[in-house]
C-alpha cells in the first residue's frame, strides 16, 4: 500500500523545547513509521501542537534533533516539500478556493503550470467543494474553509500530513466531513499525524497513540491497547475525563 | 479687493465655462500627482513589504528614517531636488529644473515614505497571521512579499490614497522645483498660493473648489472600492 518512496520514518532524538525558562517539550525520543494513523493526545497545554510544529520544522528544538529517514535520499529542502500541515484555524489566501490550491502547487514546484489546475479541481472535488472553486476562499463557511485547507494540503500529495485539531470549533456534520477526508488521504498513501482534544474522534481515527503530559511522552502504543489498558496513571485519568495536571 | 460673493461667482463661472487656463492647471496637477504616486507605489510597496519581512543589518535605522520622512516638510524635499537638478547639481546636465518631470521627482520622494511605512505596518500584521501557513507551504520570506502585497490589497489602496492626498495637497516641493510657470508648471496648489497673494481671488477660489471636489471624489471612490473588495473577498 505504501509502495512509493517516502521520507518516513520520522525519528525524534531527545527533542526538547524550552522558552522563558519553561520546558514545554521535555526530551521526547520516538520513531514514527509510515504504516498507521498517529494521533497525539494529552491534556491542554501538554505540548501537542508544539510537538507537531517541531516535527514539521516550523519550530526548531532547543535541544535534540528531528530526523527524517529519507532526508539523505531526498535532500533537506525536499524533505520539507514532502510534508504538509493543516492548522486549527485555516489560513486561506484572499483569492478563490481554486487559486489557494494552485498557489500551493506552484510553490511546491512538482507540477507544470498546465497540470496544476486539474490537480486542484480534483482535490476540491474530493472534499466536496467542486462547486465553490471560483468563490473567494474567505467567504466560505468554517467547515468549508477547513475542508479547503485539507484539500490544499492533500493536493500536494505529501508523504506526511500533520493536522492540528482540525475539527476544533466545527459542528458534528462538518467534523464528519473532515474525518472522511482524513481517511481518504490516509487510504491514498499519506501518513497522518494529528492532534485532537476530542476523544471520540481519537477512537474513530487513531491506529496508534502518542500520549503527552506536561511536555513528556508518556505512552506510544497501538490505539486499541491505549484505550483499553492505558499503562500510565495519567493516561488512565485522562481517559476517565479527570483533570490531569 | 473684491467681495467674497463676487469672487465666488467669478470662480463658478470659470468652472462651468471650462476656462482654458483653469482646465490646463487642473490637468497638469492631476498628471504630476498621479504619476508621482504611481512611481512611489512601485518603489514603496515592495520596500515596505521587504522591511516588514526581511531581516538585514541596519533594518532598524532604515525603518526609523522612513517613518520620520513621513513628516518631511515638502519645501525641504523641494530644496533637495532643486539642488540635485540645478545647473551645478549632479543631475544638472539633464535640464530638468522647472519642468513637470522635476515636480514628479519631488512628489515621488515625498510620497514614497508614506506608502512604504504604511505598507510595512499592514504587511507586518498580515505576516503574523500567514507566517506558519506560508512557511509550511514552502514560501520563504522573500517569496512571501508578492503574496502578502496581493492579499493586503484592500488595505494598501488606503496607503496609496494617503500618498495621493499628500501629493495633491502639497505646494512647497513643486513650487520650489517647478516655479509656477504659467502654462508649463502651474498647478492647483501653486496657483492658489500665488494668485491669492496677487489678489486674483476668482482663479484661486475656483481652483480651490476643484481641488476639494477631486480629493473628495478620490476618497469616496476608494471608500466604495474598499467596501466592495471586503464584501467580495471576506
UniProtKB/TrEMBL annotation, chain A:
Keywords: ATP-binding, Nucleotide-binding. InterPro entries: AAA+_ATPase, ABC_transporter-like_ATP-bd, ABC_transporter-like_CS, ABC_transpr_LolD-like, P-loop_NTPase. It comes from the Bacteria. GO terms for molecular function: ATP binding; ATP hydrolysis activity; transmembrane transporter activity. GO terms for cellular component: plasma membrane. PANTHER family: FE(3+) IONS IMPORT ATP-BINDING PROTEIN FBPC (PTHR24220:SF612), IMPORT ATP-BINDING PROTEIN (PTHR24220). This is ABC transporter ATP-binding protein. The lineage of its organism: Bacteria, Pseudomonadati, Pseudomonadota, Alphaproteobacteria, Hyphomicrobiales. Residues 10-239 form the ABC transporter domain. It comes from Chelatococcus daeguensis. Belongs to the ABC transporter superfamily.
TrEMBL record, chain B:
It comes from Chelatococcus daeguensis. The chain crosses the membrane at residues 32-54, 61-85, 97-118, 156-181, 201-222. Its main location: membrane. It is a multi-pass membrane protein. Residues 26-222 form the ABC transmembrane type-1 domain. The lineage of its organism: Bacteria, Pseudomonadati, Pseudomonadota, Alphaproteobacteria, Hyphomicrobiales. The keyword Transmembrane applies. GO terms for cellular component: plasma membrane. This is ABC transporter permease. It is found in: Cell membrane. InterPro entries: ABC_perm_TupB-like, MetI-like, MetI-like_sf. PANTHER family: PERMEASE COMPONENT OF TUNGSTATE ABC TRANSPORTER. One of its GO terms (biological process) is transmembrane transport. CDD domains: TM_PBP2 (cd06261). Keywords: Membrane, Transmembrane, Transmembrane helix. The keyword Zinc-finger does not apply.
Amino acid at each position: 500500500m505504501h509502495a512509493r518512496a517516502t521520507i518516513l520514518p520520522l525519528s525524534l532524538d531527545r527533542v526538547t523545547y524550552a522558552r522563558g525558562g519553561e520546558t514545554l517539550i521535555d526530551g521526547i525520543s520516538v520513531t514514527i513509521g509510515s504504516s498507521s494513523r498517529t494521533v497525539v493526545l494529552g491534556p491542554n497545554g501538554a505540548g501537542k501542537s508544539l510537538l507537531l510544529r517541531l516535527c514539521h520544522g516550523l519550530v526548531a528544538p532547543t535541544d535534540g534533533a528531528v530526523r527524517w529517514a529519507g532526508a539523505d535520499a531526498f535532500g533537506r529542502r525536499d524533505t520539507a516539500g514532502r510534508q504538509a500541515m493543516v492548522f486549527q484555524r485555516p489560513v486561506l489566501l484572499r483569492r478563490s478556493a481554486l487559486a489557494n490550491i494552485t498557489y500551493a502547487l506552484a510553490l511546491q514546484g512538482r507540477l507544470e503550470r498546465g497540470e496544476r489546475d486539474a490537480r486542484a479541481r480534483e482535490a476540491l472535488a474530493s472534499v466536496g467543494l467542486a462547486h465553490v472553486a471560483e468563490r473567494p476562499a474567505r467567504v466560505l463557511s468554517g467547515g468549508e474553509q477547513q475542508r479547503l485547507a485539507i484539500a490544499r494540503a492533500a493536493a500536494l500529495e505529501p508523504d506526511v500530513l500533520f493536522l492540528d485539531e482540525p475539527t476544533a470549533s466545527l459542528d458534528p456534520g462538518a467534523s464528519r466531513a473532515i474525518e472522511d477526508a482524513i481517511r481518504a488521504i490516509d487510504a491514498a498513501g499519506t501518513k497522518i499525524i494529528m492532534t485532537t482534544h476530542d476523544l471520540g474522534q481519537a477512537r474513530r481515527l487513531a491506529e496508534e497513540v502518542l500520549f503527552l503530559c506536561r511536555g513528556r511522552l508518556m505512552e506510544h502504543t497501538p490505539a486499541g491497547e491505549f484505550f483499553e489498558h492505558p499503562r500510565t496513571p495519567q493516561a488512565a485519568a485522562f481517559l476517565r475525563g479527570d483533570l490531569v495536571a | 479687493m473684491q467681495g467674497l460673493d463676487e469672487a465666488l461667482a467669478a470662480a463658478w463661472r470659470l468652472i462651468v465655462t471650462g476656462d482654458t487656463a483653469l482646465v490646463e492647471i487642473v490637468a497638469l496637477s492631476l498628471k504630476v500627482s498621479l504619476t508621482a504616486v504611481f512611481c512611489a507605489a512601485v518603489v514603496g510597496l515592495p520596500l515596505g513589504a521587504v522591511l516588514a519581512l526581511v531581516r538585514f543589518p541596519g533594518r532598524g535605522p532604515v525603518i526609523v528614517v522612513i517613518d520620520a520622512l513621513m513628516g518631511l516638510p515638502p519645501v525641504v524635499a523641494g530644496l533637495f531636488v532643486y539642488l540635485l537638478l540645478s545647473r551645478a547639481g549632479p543631475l544638472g546636465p539633464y535640464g530638468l529644473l522647472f519642468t513637470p518631470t522635476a515636480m514628479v521627482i519631488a512628489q515621488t520622494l515625498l510620497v514614497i515614505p508614506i506608502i512604504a511605512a504604511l505598507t510595512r505596518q499592514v504587511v507586518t500584521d498580515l505576516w503574523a497571521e500567514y507566517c506558519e501557513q506560508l512557511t509550511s507551504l514552502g514560501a520563504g520570506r522573500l517569496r512571501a512579499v508578492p503574496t502578502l502585497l496581493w492579499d493586503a490589497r484592500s488595505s494598501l489602496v488606503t496607503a496609496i490614497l494617503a500618498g495621493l492626498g499628500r501629493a495633491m495637497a502639497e505646494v512647497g516641493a513643486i513650487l520650489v522645483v517647478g516655479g509656477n510657470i504659467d502654462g508649463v508648471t502651474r498647478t492647483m496648489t501653486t496657483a492658489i498660493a500665488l494668485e491669492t497673494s496677487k489678489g486674483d481671488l476668482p482663479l484661486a477660489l475656483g481652483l480651490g473648489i476643484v481641488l476639494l471636489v477631486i480629493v473628495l471624489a478620490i476618497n469616496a471612490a476608494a471608500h466604495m472600492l474598499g467596501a466592495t473588495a471586503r464584501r467580495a473577498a471576506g
